[in-house]
Amino acid sequence: MEEKIIRDELEAIGEAAAPEEETMEAKEAAYEKFVWDNLKRNYIGNYLHGMLGMTGFRLVNAPTFLPAYLHMISGSNTIVGLGLALQQVGSIVSPIVGATQIEHRTKVMPAAMWMGGLARLQILGMAASGWLLSGQSLVVAILAFMFMFGLFMGAQRVVFGLLMAKVIPLSRRGRLQAWRNATGGLIAAVLAYFAGRYFVGANLFGNGYGVTFIFAFVLTSLGLSALNLLLREPEPPTLRAQTKLRDRIKDFPALIASDRGYMYFLIVQMLATAGRLAVPFYIIYAGTTIELNGRNLGLLSLAYLGADTLSNLLWGYMGDKTGFRRILLVSLVIWIAATVLLMNVHLMPLTFLAFFGLGAAQSGYMMAAQTMILEFGSRDEMPMRIAISATAEGIMAAIGPLAGGIMASTLGFPVVFGVSIGFLVAALLLLIVAVKEPRTARIGRI
Fold this sequence. Notes:
Layout: H1 2-37, H2 39-61, H3 65-74, H4 77-102, H5 109-132, H6 135-167, H7 173-200, H8 208-230, H9 245-250, H10 252-257, H11 260-274, H12 282-289, H13 294-322, H14 325-343, H15 348-372, H16 382-410, H17 413-434, H18 438-445
């Protein structure tokens, strides 16, 4: 009799739960339908945002214009390292804060407009300060704008990463990034060449670097506007409840430990980011082996950004077909080889080739790292996973350039490049041994 009562109760619970389960399935189906129904519009919006927005950001983040400008106005390798370190310090805390602000929201585009707009204002500030200030005041202003730029870029990374995951299906992300990065890279490469030769070389309007940064501001603003006009954002079937920042930070160990693949991937990210300590000094070291005039600065910028253009098509389509772990692996190998080449050449054609390899490697790394992070774990935890990775990278990227600047000033560039190669080799070995393709693991779980 007792067993019958228990059985009847379980059947009643099952009957009561069935409608809820069907409702959740219906919500998931409606979510997927919305994504596919609006894919063309959202694809175009993300494409324009990436093509125009990332074009401008490449001009600022490429290891040519901003490091060269900071070195010109300060005359110090340490200040160059400090500037890049401050930019990364800004991006350490903001991703986590940004994630706690959006992970409970049905729509995140309003936050994207705020974070994206504030990041772009810092580029305008870098440009304007060159005309309004001079001497030590100019150096301090550029350092401050770099810090603020990193602060808002860190939050922006989480928001736009989540937006892409919401509106672009997994099977389409690689080719979207391939075409937007390729066309954006083409524009950036051509603009970089002309900026180096005709803006910086001619010191246009008395501040050639400022003119270059204004172009970057305009392009990034147009990209953000296009995304805002075109994007149609779905409301996810499930959301995390709003949580205090302190409580979410306490969840980090469990969140990382719950997926060993993600844990090792996070360590790979940190090692590879530590390897970026040499990036600000590529162009400065090149200036010790070749004449770093406006024409050569433009050519090396063209090589770096042109490689981004050509390689992204390969990276994107390969990633859609094979997963992005292979892209990450190949990128690290090319990055190591290009750094070794740069250390051992003294002719412009070979230096051009080294910068081409560095550009291809780092574009592949960025695409793989930013896409793989979307493929680990559950959807509800995605904003915080992106934030944890961005913060971990930010910590390493903040320490790296500053340490690199001190090493460059005291021990020389070969030591900086050697340490960089050591970190990259460690990342490569850990990737091979411990990180499996997350897409394959996800399919296996399904």
